[in-house]
Design brief:
The structure holds three protein chains of three kinds. The radius of gyration of chain A is 23 Å and the shape is elongated. Chain A contains six helices and no strands. In chain A, helix 1 packs antiparallel against helix 5, helix 2 packs across helix 5 and helix 3 runs antiparallel to helix 6. The longest helix of chain A has 36 residues. By secondary structure, chain A is an all-alpha fold. Chain A starts with 27 loop residues before the first helix and ends with a helix. Chain A has one domain: Four Helix Bundle (Hemerythrin (Met), subunit A). Chain B is 64% helix and 1% strand. By secondary structure, chain B is mainly alpha-helical. In chain B, the strands form two sheets. In chain B, strands 1-2 form a two-stranded antiparallel ribbon. In chain B, strands 3-4 form a two-stranded antiparallel sheet. The termini of chain B are close together. Chain B has a single domain, classed as Cytochrome C Oxidase, Chain A (Up-down Bundle). In chain C, 34% of the residues lie in helices and 20% in strands. In chain C, helix 4 crosses helix 6. Among the domains of chain C are: 111 residues, Cupredoxins -  blue copper proteins (Immunoglobulin-like, Sandwich), CATH 2.60.40.420; 94 residues, Orthogonal Bundle (Cytochrome Bc1 Complex, Chain D, domain 2). In chain C, a hairpin with a 5-residue loop joins strand 2 and strand 3. Classes of the chains: A mainly alpha, B mainly alpha, C alpha+beta. Chains A and B meet through helix 1 and helix 5 of A and helix 8 and helix 9 of B. The structure holds heme-A (HEA) (2 copies), dinuclear copper ion and copper (II) ion. Dinuclear copper ion binds next to loops of chain C.
Chain lengths: 226, 577, 319
């Protein structure tokens, strides 16, 4: 026992922890870098997740280019364009909210978050009308396909399978994002975030940009392949 | 006592490795505080814990239960094969049995086994962190696992899937069994695996203790890190593949369905794009454990540390471009086949590097035959066989003959059971005293080891011969001439079953009743042994560790063996007295 | 049958088999070498340097690194695997390229049997008959899920897919009977999707061909039907003595009212039997799975008539 020299170690709480820093982190910087890095890694998994669908798209498109060419015409590119515009704007408002938090303009940040939420909602509403129209016409995936306007095309239902899978998965991401934004709005309103601490907003922003980015790929691939 | 003829400075370093002295001990002689009894009391405190050590224990319980279920199926399979078809199951039941066996063993047992149980427990300890980067995500991963497991179990108790663990289309889209709940289960389990992977990557990058440079990390950490990369990159592909399969069943989307211009072989590409890297998700952490065990129990610096570390990364990266070797008979282009065969061989080389480095580490060591070491040595023995037979399969002409025969079954059991499971069980025996502060009965554990070792080789070596003689896999019944070999293999499985049973009892008993041990019973040099008590405190270390030496610096530091511990406090014995 | 079988491998009865075996045995010996090297090294080291009592205070004295050693065990295995790669690939290419003069047999896999159609138009079920020393090209497809054509003694295996033709070939070198397995899991009776490859001498093959072209001359329809009952593999699922099988027994069914899964019932007569053979999924007998394959294209009209006659006889409609 005698030779058990005292450990040469950094003592616990050498510097006090603000309450927004979790106990297992050294300091706010470590926490911030960790959560950002974690989000990037998560986004990689998201890219690969969608990547599988993009691969399926690419392969089927190579096999049956005519199918895609014919079937995509029933999509309304104007609605797609509108939604592209809506999403890009929402990315901008999200980025602005972070910017305003960094300079402690919490109120403005809050308005920007709310704007983001409204834009995301608009996207979903437009999507809803698109879907409803397709349901009505029977332009549905796989064996539920009953539409009769594409008799000349081989296997048009596969195009709609892919369309619904890709936009559906993307829509799900938008919905999840909207949930997250609500949570951020509440916390911002409660004053949890300020220039010293805005991690959750920042990493959610990264996620939102990815969701946006995926749409930017989906839009031309589905609506404008001609 | 060996003469110490090295520089004296190193000897003075020795006491540093005896820092893990408990503040006090409770009535049972265990350190106080410790994470088992002092991190909150009652079941609820466990179900809501964010402590990586407790989450590791929770994984231990459920994953072991799954191993048990998978193992029972294995024994049923073998019992059926004492003679041609109809011993105790009909053909459909047999098909469900091997499907459930394979699916449970891969998705519910082996993939989470080392990372989620041992990785969770030791990774933060080994790098001197207080926890993983995202403790709540860690807990979430456990719940996601339970959720996924619930779906799998649902499939099991209703109308178990009968597709093989590979779920090949078009069979899997046609069969009437509960394929959806099984694949949905595997899909959900994928998220659990991704969460663990993200957590480990960030933890290793951002939470290392001061002084813990990349090359001071134990090889277990390197291996977990490489594994996490594969988990993060490959698992989403499995997710989307299984999702497509489910949609194919529900909506008939047509991507894999030939009657709609799709292609069933495309499914195979998707599946193996994940599942080949997945086999390295299974083996890499095992290799990490073996590196630690061999170093500790031969008290030697690991030979060629950097080669061993980087070979893990090499395996992780190259593993993404060999998937086609599972499909040599499916009619790919000659060019694709050639590339896949070639790259398959290239993945073999980093494994060869590791095997040779481990063997050389034993040279001039101080080798102890503790139970974990026995498992490590049997890993070397079996993994070499398993890996070398992988080389058979990479060789195109030979694989044409061996594909989908028992040779494949033998190959992957040699690497998965002989490799991963031996490493995992060895790791359990190694860290058990750290997890519970208690030691198992060495004699009982050694007997269990012997049963497993003998039983395993009898079971699966026989299957190499069966396979090369032409016995196809996934066969409920078989021609008479294979009966003798099948019977032999089945007896081996029964012996192995006894071994695993005895092992389970020994370990379980030790967790509650075993002899209390000190902080460092093996004389290891990694932080969890030198700086944390057994069991560790709720926040791991009394103080952030100061990393003074590398994980295997047995040439500079004499480890302080802290065993046996009778009630007293840090009775650390001077290293060289 | 297994005259040339060894400890590791079954009899080798095709031109390619010896080449495959050569590489296989090379791999066996190479693996043995590395295995022995590693195990012997391990045993040597662990016995020589096993820890003695009180050995703990000893500082590690072995080397931590040696570039030459590392280089050796990177380079040597790399060279070896290159050799293995080329060797394997060369033989594989031979397996992939069908000789121009090959005789072509059309193979169909379906749950759970194989059928073969020969150049002259005859067909067999679960038995592939080929002449010795003649390259045979197999043009294969599946009616349902994926199967795989596997003859261990020939070292050939190729998946049989529902959406395209796959091709493989072999040249048998020895007269005899060999196992034909389905090597891709395909459901309940995957393990019973077993057939035989019968390799005949040239003269025997000629005789067989004649026999196969035989269309019942000089036999009664029922007698001919009885032959077809075995040669077309009805026997694997249907009994004629009342014993249970995958399909209903034919004993006493003629004129009988068979209950169907959908609740209706059907009287067994000529039309129903004919339909059952050509389109078995149309009506499913209660208590059975819809597993019977269609014989559309595999049986000539005359053969169907003969089977009907036979079923009539054993089914109690003959007397
Ligand atoms: C832990 C899991 C694991 C691991 C580590 C491996 C490792 C390897 N596997 Fe295996 N494999 C599986 C699990 C695993 N496999 C599974 C589950 C399947 C079947 C799935 C199914 O169909 O259900 C399979 C199937 C499989 C196939 C497909 C066979 C078929 O279906 O036809 C192939 C083909 O190439 C293959 C090759 C290899 C190779 C080359 C390695 C290499 O990484 C091995 C490298 C190791 C060594 C080479 C040994 C050590 C080195 C030396 C001792 C030095 C000397 C070496 C040389 C001279 C080369 N494996
Ligand atoms: C990790 C993966 C893993 C593991 C560990 C095992 C373990 C075993 N496997 Fe399996 N196996 C697979 C993965 C695995 N298998 C896969 C993927 C397939 C392919 C499936 C397919 O074709 O689709 C397969 C297929 C397969 C087949 C081929 C079936 C066929 O093709 O027809 C056979 C046949 O012998 C077999 C046998 C065994 C045996 C005897 C064991 C034994 O080692 C089992 C021994 C274990 C026990 C007896 C359990 C004892 C446990 C306890 C007592 C509890 C312990 C608890 C604590 C420690 C707390 N397995
Ligand atoms: Cu057909 Cu298996
Ligand atoms: Cu593989």
């Amino acid at each position: 026992m005698a030779d058990s020299v005292a450990p040469a170690a950094t003592t616990e709480h050498a510097h006090s922890h603000p309450d927004y820093v979790q106990h297992h982190f050294h300091d706010a910087t470590q926490q911030r870098e960790s959560s950002k890095f974690g989000m990037w890694v998560f986004l990689v998994t998201e890219v690969l997740f969608f990547g599988g669908l993009f691969a399926a798209y690419a392969i089927y498109h190579t096999w049956h280019p005519e199918t895609f060419h014919d079937a995509h015409k029933v999509l309304d590119w104007r609605l797609g364009m509108l939604n592209t515009f809506v999403l890009i704007t929402s990315s901008l408002t999200f980025a602005l909210s972070i910017r305003y938090l960094q300079v402690d303009k919490v109120k403005v940040a809050l308005y920007n978050l709310i704007a983001t939420f409204v834009l995301a909602g608009t996207f979903m509403v437009v999507k809803y009308f698109e879907y409803a129209h397709k349901f009505h016409l029977g332009q549905l995936p796989g064996k539920y396909y009953t539409y009769t306007g594409l008799e000349e095309t081989v296997n048009p239902h596969v195009f709609f399978s892919i369309y619904f899978m890709m936009t559906g998965l993307h829509g799900l991401h938008v919905l999840i994002g909207m949930g997250v934004i609500v949570w951020l709005i509440v916390r911002t309103a409660k004053g949890h975030f300020h220039s010293q601490y805005y991690n959750p907003v920042e990493v959610s922003g990264l996620y939102w940009h990815l969701v946006d980015l995926i749409w930017i790929f989906l839009f031309p691939l589905l609506y404008l392949i001609a | 006592m060996a003469v110490n003829n090295s520089a004296t400075t190193t000897v003075q370093d020795a006491p540093r490795s005896a820092l893990a002295v408990p503040a006090s001990r409770d009535s049972k002689g265990l350190p106080h505080p410790n994470y088992l009894s002092d991190g909150g009391k009652g079941l609820w405190s466990w179900l809501t814990t964010v402590d990586h050590k407790r989450i590791g224990i929770m994984y231990l319980i459920v994953v072991m239960a799954m191993f048990f279920v998978g193992g029972i199926y294995a024994l049923l399979i073998r019992a059926e094969h004492f003679a041609p078809g109809g011993q105790l199951m009909n053909a459909d039941q047999y098909n469900q049995a091997f499907t459930m066996h394979g699916a449970i063993m891969t998705f519910l047992f082996i993939i989470p086994s080392i990372p989620a149980i041992l990785g969770n427990f030791v990774l933060p300890l080994q790098i001197g962190a207080k926890d993983v980067a995202f403790p709540r995500l860690n807990l979430a991963s456990w719940y996601v696992y339970m959720f996924g497991a619930a779906f799998a179990v649902y499939s099991l108790v209703t109308n178990a899937a009968d597709t093989g663990w590979t779920f090949y289309t078009p069979y899997s889209t046609e069969t009437g069994t509960a394929v959806i709940s099984m694949t949905l289960g595997a899909f959900i389990l994928g998220f659990s695996s991704i969460f663990t992977g993200i957590n480990f990557i960030v933890t290793v990058h951002k939470l290392r203790a001061p002084g813990m440079t990349w090359f001071k990390m134990p090889l277990m950490v390197w291996a977990l890190y490489a594994t996490a990369i594969i988990q993060v990159l490959a698992t989403p592909i499995l997710g989307i593949t299984l999702l497509l399969l489910i949609l194919e069943r529900v909506f008939g989307v047509g991507i894999f369905d030939p009657s709609m211009g799709g292609d069933p072989v495309l499914y195979q590409h998707f599946f193996w794009f994940y599942s080949h890297p997945a086999v390295y998700i299974m083996i890499l952490p095992g290799m990490g454990i073996i590196s630690d065990l061999i170093a500790t129990f031969s008290h030697r610096k690991i030979f060629g540390y950097k080669f061993v570390a980087f070979s893990s990364l090499a395996i992780a990266l190259v593993s993404f471009i060999v998937w086609g070797h599972h499909m040599f008979t499916s009619g790919q282009s000659e060019f694709a086949v050639m590339l896949f065969s070639f790259i398959t061989f290239m993945v073999g080389i980093p494994s060869a590097i590791k095997v040779f480095n481990w063997t050389t580490t034993l040279y001039k060591g101080s080798i102890s035959f503790s139970v974990p070491m026995l498992y490590a040595l049997s890993f070397l023995f079996k993994f070499t066989i398993g890996g070398l037979t992988g080389i058979f399969l990479g060789a195109l002409s030979v694989d044409i003959h061996l594909h989908d025969t028992y040779f494949i079954v033998a190959h992957f059991h040699y690497v998965m059971v002989g490799g991963t499971v031996m490493a995992f069980v060895g790791g359990l025996h190694y860290w058990w005293p750290k997890m519970f502060g208690r030691m198992y009965n060495r004699t009982a554990a050694t007997i269990a080891w012997a049963f497993v070792f003998v039983g395993f080789n009898v079971t699966f070596f026989t299957q190499f011969i069966l396979g090369s003689q032409g016995m196809p896999r996934r066969y409920w019944t078989f021609p008479e001439e294979f009966t003798r070999l099948h019977g032999f293999s089945s007896w081996g499985a029964m012996i192995m079953g006894v071994g695993f049973g005895l092992m389970a009892i020994t370990l379980a008993w030790a967790a509650f009743r075993g002899r209390v041990v000190g902080s460092n019973p093996w004389g290891a040099l990694t932080l969890e042994w030198t700086h944390a008590t057994s069991p560790p405190e709720p926040h791991n270390f009394p103080a952030t560790p100061d990393v003074a030496h590398g994980p295997y610096d047995y040439d500079k530091v004499i480890p302080r063996v802290d065993e046996p511990a009778n009630a007293g406090v840090g009775h650390a014995r001077p290293a060289n007295a | 049958m297994d005259t040339t079988a060894t400890f590791w491998l079954p009899s080798s009865a095709s031109t390619i088999a010896n080449e495959v075996d050569g590489l296989f045995m090379f791999l066996v010996w190479m693996s043995t070498f590395f295995f022995v090297l590693i195990v012997a090294g391990t045993i040597l080291f662990i016995t020589k340097w096993r820890r003695k009592k009180g050995d703990v205070g000893r500082l590690d004295t072995g080397p931590a690194h040696n570039s030459w050693l590392e280089a050796t065990w990177i380079v040597v295995p790399t060279l070896l695997v290159l050799v293995i790669f080329f060797w394997g690939f060369r033989t594989y290419m031979k397996m992939a390229v069908v000789p121009g003069n090959a005789m072509e047999v059309k193979v169909t896999g379906q749950k759970w049997f194989w059928s073969f159609t020969y150049p002259e138009g005859t067909a067999t079920v679960n038995e592939l008959v080929v002449p010795v020393d003649t390259p045979v090209k197999l043009l294969m497809s599946s009616q349902d899920v994926i199967h795989s054509f596997f003859v261990p003694s020939f070292r050939v295996k190729k998946d049989v897919l529902p959406n395209r033709y796959s091709v493989t070939w072999f040249e048998a070198t020895q007269v005899g009977e060999y196992h034909l397995f389905c090597a891709e899991y395909c459901g309940t009776k995957h393990s019973e999707m077993i057939g035989t490859v019968r390799v005949l001498s040239d003269s025997d093959y000629k005789a067989w061909e004649e026999e196969a072209m035989f269309s019942g001359e000089g036999m009664s329809m029922a007698e001919y039907g009885e032959r077809l009952y075995t040669s077309k593999a009805c026997v694997t699922c249907h009994s004629v003595d009342g014993s249970p099988g995958n399909g209903p027994t034919w004993q006493g069914i003629w004129g009988h009212n068979q209950p169907m899964t959908d609740g209706s019932s059907v009287t067994v007569d000529e039309n129903y039997v004919r339909e059952s053979i050509l389109n078995p999924k149309a009506k499913i007998v209660a208590g059975y799975q819809p597993v019977m394959p269609t014989y559309q294209g595999l049986l000539s009209d005359k053969e169907i008539d003969a089977l009907v006659a036979y079923i009539k006889e054993v089914g109690g409609g003959g007397e």
